[in-house]
Specification:
Layout (H helix, E strand, L loop, with lengths): L12 E4 L3 E6 L18 H9 L4 E2 L8 E7 L2 H12 L4 E9 L5 E5 L2 E4 L4 E6 L2 E12 L9 E10 L6 H8 L13 H11 L6 E9 L6 E5 L4 H11 L4
InterPro entries: PsdUridine_synth_cat_dom_sf, PsdUridine_synth_RluA-like_CS, PsdUridine_synth_RsuA/RluA, RluA_PseudoU_synthase
Protein name: tRNA pseudouridine synthase C
GO molecular function: RNA binding; tRNA pseudouridine(65) synthase activity
């Protein structure tokens, strides 16, 4: 089940100039129409186009379940330039996630992933690297299995490659899956959060993008505040320590 999106409210614009615009994408909103998500009727491209009254071009992608900074170009030529920046690794991306268990203080996950084009995983291995930094750990009185408490970590994830579902697959690989992730996460933890917190959102937030503006050549940093559900779960798990 995907989180219901309230499209009666305008999208939150984080940055806008004559060439680019960035929004804070809600959890559950597709970037654009997809054959693998035929149940969706609203898309970020369509909503932002109607909101601004002009055509917009998504220069990168976020998973449907991921919230946070999503950047668009306002012309086809700028779209090509910014897509090249992403391909060249010239755009710095950072995410926050709430994951199962206590993660290491810092870790570089260098684990190739089989190519996934949205229609299934192929046999082709692609380089995939993610840097992890643990920001906070918590143990809460929430029974799980044979344990009387549950442990979680808030982590900062910085990918240096851009493979499909990279962060989700990397965190599953090191046995610290992102809460709310399906199918890469822990179904028992997801069920626990749904029953105890009435939460069915994936707790992954695209916090920040940093890049050099192609026209002005100035450094641009765009930061997205937490969407409601991510903020609620931070409070429930970590309290006032964040």
């Amino acid at each position: 089940m995907n989180q219901v999106i309230n499209t009666t409210q305008p999208l939150s614009i984080l940055y806008q100039d004559t060439d680019l615009v960035a929004i804070n994408k809600p959890h559950g909103l597709l970037v654009h129409r997809s054959m693998i998500a035929s149940d969706a009727s609203e898309f970020a491209v369509q909503l932002l186009r109607d909101q601004l009254g002009q055509r917009v071009y998504p220069v990168h992608r976020l998973d449907r379940k991921t919230a946070g900074v999503l950047l668009f170009a306002l012309s086809d030529s700028m779209n090509s330039i910014m897509q090249q920046q992403f391909m060249d690794g010239a755009v710095h991306k950072s995410y926050l996630a709430i994951v199962r268990g206590y993660t290491p203080d810092e870790l570089t996950i260098d684990y190739p992933l089989r190519k996934d084009d949205g229609n299934g995983v192929t046999g082709v291995l692609q380089e995939a690297v993610t840097h992890l930094k643990t920001l906070q750990q918590t143990e809460v009185p929430l029974p799980f299995g044979k344990h009387t408490t549950s442990r979680y970590s808030l982590v900062k994830l910085t990918p240096t490659t851009g493979r499909m579902h990279q962060l989700r697959r990397h965190m599953a690989h090191i046995l610290h899956p992102i809460i709310g992730d399906r199918p890469h996460g822990c179904n028992k933890q997801n069920k626990l959060f749904k029953e105890h917190f009435e939460m069915n959102t994936m707790l992954l937030h695209a916090q920040q993008l940093t890049f050099t503006h192609p026209v002005t050549e100035e450094p641009i940093t765009i930061t997205a505040p937490f969407q409601t559900e991510f903020g609620r779960m931070l409070g429930a798990l970590f309290g006032d320590t964040i």
